[in-house]
Design brief:
The protein has 12 helices and no strands. α1 runs antiparallel to α2. The longest helix is centred in the middle third of the chain and has 47 residues. The protein is elongated, with a radius of gyration of 26 Å. The termini are far apart. 34% of the residues are buried.
């Protein structure tokens, strides 16, 4: 019986590597249990995205409040209270939203996975034809694709995972991958990452006011506000660069775009606060 490297076959399919895919079925057999426990490829990428987008939301919304309150001439102590209250409330809201959306996404993926499993069990020939077409679209000849599918098809989990990744861009993880917690464990981790990123990044521009010591002084365009702006610019640019990296775009251009976005938001918030204060 031909030996099969299931992890290699799955990787070769995604990389569109004909030679690697064929060789994957002729290598020494690997432990099947290891293939079933292969971690989700996108997990680390998803957590990076949670860090980046959670941080961007945190720093943009918090500094807009700081700018508006400074323009309105509120005291530094009041600015800190308003900003921290908004920061904590929004961080909790973002974390809860992330948790709920992760669970909803996992539920949808599981539903599609089960449906595909039933289709493979009830109509194996039809699903074989679909899988052969998928390999042919990757550049394999019909004979190569047919051979690969015949070798691979007895391993239903691998076949289902490949078809799920191709048709839906995601597949399910075994509960054992998350130390017994399953999808709920992953959703909690994602929510905690978002919460922490939102809180940390959003809180950095507030350090200038927190360390100023003169909490009864009126907020204005002074050295404290300038230091806060500098912290805002550095963190926002770095997050913009990471955003470009995880989105497969030019990191420097992404950083500049986020700076422009932040500048517009800050100016609008500051002048609205200033205008309201002068109108009174």
């Amino acid at each position: 019986m031909a030996s099969r490297n299931l992890k290699g076959a799955r990787s070769a399919f995604e990389e569109n590597d004909i030679r690697k895919s064929i060789e994957a079925h002729d290598e020494k057999p690997l432990i099947d249990e290891e293939d079933r426990k292969e971690p989700h490829k996108e997990e680390s990428g998803e957590f990076i995205k949670s860090i980046v987008f959670g941080g961007l939301d945190g720093i943009m919304t918090t500094f807009a409040i700081v700018a508006a309150a400074t323009g309105a001439g509120l005291t530094r102590g009041v600015i800190l209270i308003i900003a921290f209250a908004n920061l904590l409330g929004d961080a909790i809201g973002m974390a809860v939203g992330d948790y709920v959306s992760e669970l909803a996404e996992e539920d949808q993926i599981k539903l599609e996975y089960k449906k595909l499993e039933q289709d493979i069990d009830n109509n194996p020939d039809e699903q074989k034809s679909i899988l052969i077409e998928l390999y042919e679209k990757k550049g394999f000849t019909n004979s190569q694709a047919s051979r690969i599918v015949e070798l691979l098809f007895p391993y239903r989990k691998t076949v289902t995972s490949i078809m799920m990744m191709e048709e839906h861009g995601a597949t399910i993880e075994d509960d054992s991958d998350e130390e017994g917690g399953g999808a709920d464990y992953g959703a909690i981790k994602s929510a905690l990452v978002t919460f922490t990123s939102f809180l940390v990044c959003g809180g950095i521009p507030l350090l200038a006011y927190l360390c100023s010591g003169h909490y009864n002084s009126q907020g204005e365009f002074d050295s404290i506000f300038i230091i806060s702006i500098a912290l805002f610019v550095v963190v926002l640019f770095l997050l913009g660069c990471f955003k470009g990296y995880v989105s497969n775009k030019n990191w420097f251009i992404s950083g500049i775009q986020m700076l422009i976005n932040g500048a517009v938001t800050t100016l609008v918030a500051f002048w609205i606060g200033y205008g309201i204060e002068k109108a009174q």
